[in-house]
Amino acid sequence: MHTPRHVLVAAALVGLVACGAPAQTETVARNDVGSPALQAAPAPAQQTLYFGGQYRFADGITISVSTPKSFHPSSSAYPRSDRAVAFEIAIRNDGDQPYRLSGLSVSATVDGTGAKQVVDPTQGYSGIVDAGKDLPMGRDVRVTLAFAVAEQQTAMKLSLRPTATSTVVAVYCGAA
After folding, report:
1. pLDDT in tens, 142-175
2. Nearest Cα to 78, choosing from 158, 15, 147?
3. Going by fewer Cβ within 10 Å, which terminus of the chain is more open, N or C?
4. Do 170 and 162 touch, CB atoms closer than 8 A?
5. β-strand partners of 61
6. Cα–Cα dist 171/44, whole Å
7. Exposed / middle / buried, residue 66 (Cβ in 10 Å: 0-12, 13-18, 19+)
């Protein structure tokens, strides 16, 4: 008989397999005699969440990503795509200094392949329009980004870093 705890553990393991286990690797080069010669910077740690979740980075920036909203891009959208999904990304600054929105890095993959961001001003998907502005301490902002996807539902990941030097990448995943 399975106890509720066993069921929760099994569900968590299934979730990790569905989203992909976080990669936390460190590369060490070795010289001819086998001792460490050069140590590469460790890859950023990944925090894997499902769409709809939120993650707070050590610098006080909290990012929430909505579940994907499917839509058909208009004829003025770029790049052309038969279907796209949009995400509302909420950013809250509880840090000790203003946060520059231009530091936000967002990338998407669909079934492991890079997805292109869709710009469709007709439907309100214009990217991060206030990228040059600072987000004051204690404030939040919402941006909506869209990405091209296949006609049929597929596995998707959205990777976010508040800055290029962030030691953590928040990876949101699920069906899109």
Report:
1. 999 999 999 999 999 999 999 988 999 999 999 9
2. 147
3. N
4. no
5. 93
6. 11
7. middle
In the block, tokens 């928040």 appear at 170
One-letter amino acid at 150 equals: A
Q: What is the pTM of this model?
A: 0.76
> How far separated are the first and last CA of the chain, in Å rounded?
35
Q: Distance of alpha carbon 88 from its chain centroid, rounded? A: 12
Query: Which tokens is 139 given?
Result: 């404030």
By CB atoms closer than 10 A (0-12, 13-18, 19+), residue 49 is: buried
- Per-residue pLDDT band for 32 (boundaries 50, 70, 90) equals low
**CB-side neighbour CA atoms (13 Å) of 108:** 23
Contact 117, 145 (CB under 8 A): yes
Average the pLDDT over 8-25 and give the result: 43
Q: Please name the amino acid found at residue 110.
A: V
